[in-house]
Design brief:
By secondary structure, the chain is α+β, with helices and mostly antiparallel strands. The protein contains 7 helices and 7 strands. A hairpin with a 2-residue loop joins strand 4 (about 170-180) and strand 5 (about 180-190). Helix 4 runs antiparallel to helix 6. The longest helix is centred in the first third of the chain and has 63 residues, at about 5-65. It is globular, with a radius of gyration of 24 Å. The relative contact order is 0.11.
Amino acid sequence: MLTMANRRAVDYADLLTQALREEKRELQASNAALEQYAYVSSHDLQTPLRSLRDVTDYLTEDLQSDHPDALRNLKVTKALADLYALIARMEGLVLGVLEFARVGRSAGAAESFDADAAIRDIVASSGIELSRIQLSGDFPVLFSNRLRFFQIVTNLLRNAAQHHHAPQHLQITIDGRVSGADYTLAIGDDGPGIDAKFHGKIFEMFQVLTPGARSGSTGIGLAIVRRAVDAENGTISVVSAPGQGARFTVVLPEIVAPVAHALAAE
């Protein structure tokens, strides 16, 4: 039989649990509304951006045909180049926000896929030469959300390439490890590295440590990675220091397919 004090403690715990559940529901509703807003806004912004690029193309063509001397003016050519660069950056931002919003939306059911084949396909579509990437460790059959896995690896590779101080010397390592049913993927590079004081900020939206126009970064890629990892109930961490490159480690729990898990245990 519960004492008065114990009953009060139980009642208080019930009230606290109910309050936490309500806060969770409100947070989920708020996040869903924000995702919908980001998705619709970024999708709708693509139309005026396409129109702006078309108008800039028409202007350039008119100058070439009717005022060719104008294109010999360095100020005019620089203005056009700056305009195209700004349009491209805005397009990148819009597409990045759209992809970020999609991570939180339904991305399909889990399915079996070969990690080695998936990573090689991602590398091939990234534009990075395979010779610049070293694969090591375990790349088993996974049972997970293929799209989220693609988003994680793609954006980590893109991050390494975009921020490298000497792209012609870029070297990336991809190391996979199986631990029970958990899968750890570590992607490292020999780039300029990241100061420890920025390790938390780099996973936030629109955080760019180098000017976007110079690096081509929108500051969304690592935020997408974190969101995709969170959606898989995983973790991501970074080890890096200035001049020492960066190594991002992603742990995805319970995604190693049972067959591959059994073989790894033998």
